[in-house]
Design a protein that fits this description.
Elements: E1 17-21, H1 54-65, E2 71-75, H2 85-93, E3 100-105, H3 110-120, E4 124-128, H4 134-141, H5 148-160, E5 166-171, H6 180-187, E6 193-198, H7 216-226, E7 229-232, E8 242-246, E9 252-256, E10 269-272, E11 277-279, E12 288-289, H8 291-295, H9 300-312, H10 318-321, H11 324-327, H12 334-337
Parallel strand pairs: 1-2, 1-10, 2-3, 3-4, 4-5, 5-6, 6-9
Antiparallel strand pairs: 7-8, 8-9, 10-11, 11-12
Helix pairs in contact: 1-2, 1-9, 2-3, 3-5
Length: 339
């Protein structure tokens, strides 16, 4: 497939980005994603035979590229737990039309893999870091892991050239909201962009409450009070984070406000679960099975038609219609979708 068919959904949103979950497993138990009391030692993670192999992922990614996708992001769970991930990246790098390949990680395994991933064709990484305080971070990640190994992972990624590097901080009221200014201070002037993320009701197991959300407006106001900010234009249409530059030229921050200031209208992202299901929204309850027809011998054209028809029917706008009744509806977990 060499020709590109640009497909739009019912709201005129083009398909441009594909997030690929390569595993549903993780070596941390962050309370906003995989709380330890739910994802315990006996939790039934997917058996290997149910997970897409590298060739299957690459083939599906090629189909998405034929429909206008130019950006891929590898997620999990923790994607660095996936064996031979560098081999998958090499396969994805060779797909015509793919311009950018990124990875979201907790950073713990980056020292072992950063150089290999860069050599395979990975462009950049986003690292999750919810606090610079070891006690706060340890409570939030559910494993008591301190910040040192994550900071080492960040250094490894920078040394390998996986830049520009971004940090994701999920902000929860009463847990780590006192760390907002500290995170901004630590990374100002370093070239690293911190993205402050409102605590979201992804899935049904993270105990989400509106009272736990620190609005993006408050985050910006607090940082602006210390280091004046000015709004910056998006880098591209559909960018999830609102950009804010420090007026003194010391870089920028991002704020992701899925709860208080929604961006459904520009959403260009599809998600492929580790099991091979296509999700058209982070808050979706069910996906569309791609693995079964793929393993049954479907042609590329048949797979392309399947994806195209799903996207053309897409009318998702969960964040715009979120209310007390929708919050309680069944939704796939973030660890399954890859965020």
């Amino acid at each position: 497939m060499t020709d590109v068919t640009h497909v739009k959904d019912t709201r005129g949103r083009r398909l441009r980005d594909l997030r690929i979950s390569v595993t549903d497993r993780c070596n941390l138990r962050c309370n906003y994603c995989m709380p330890a009391d739910v994802f315990g030692p006996d939790y039934p993670f997917l058996p290997r035979k149910e997970i897409l192999d590298h060739e299957e992922i690459a083939r599906i990614a090629r189909v998405f590229a034929s429909l206008g996708v130019t950006k891929l992001r590898l997620t999990g769970g923790e994607p660095l737990l996936r064996r031979d991930l560098d081999q998958l990246i090499t396969m994805l790098r060779g797909i015509p039309g793919i311009e950018d390949i990124a990875l979201t990680t907790n950073g713990l395994l980056l020292p072992a893999f950063a150089r290999k991933l860069k050599d395979a064709g990975l462009d950049r990484v986003t690292v999750s870091l919810d606090s610079l305080d070891d006690a706060v971070f340890g409570r939030m990640n559910g494993k008591g892991v301190g910040t040192a190994p994550v900071l080492k992972g960040i250094d490894s990624a920078i040394q390998a050239g996986l830049t520009p590097l971004k940090l994701n901080m999920v902000v929860k009221r009463g847990e780590n909201d006192t760390e907002i200014e500290a995170m901004a201070r630590r990374w100002r002037g370093t070239g690293i962009i911190v993205r402050f993320i409102e605590f979201m009701d992804v899935g049904t197991k993270n105990g989400w409450r509106m009272d736990d959300v620190v609005p993006a407006r408050e985050i910006v106001q607090r940082i602006n009070a210390r280091w004046p900010l000015e709004s910056a234009d998006p880098n591209y249409q559909g960018e999830v984070a609102s950009r804010w530059r420090y007026k003194d030229g010391q870089g920028e921050i991002g704020v992701i406000s899925s709860v208080t200031n929604t961006f459904c209208g520009d959403c260009t992202r599809a998600r492929l679960s580790a099991r091979g299901e296509l999700y058209t929204c982070l808050f979706a309850a069910k996906g569309h099975d791609i693995k079964t027809p793929l393993r049954a011998g479907a042609t590329d054209y048949e797979l392309q038609t399947l994806v195209e028809n799903v996207w053309k029917r897409r009318d998702d706008r969960y964040s715009e219609i979120r209310n007390e009744s929708t919050v309680g509806l069944p939704k796939a977990e973030m660890s399954y979708l890859g965020g």
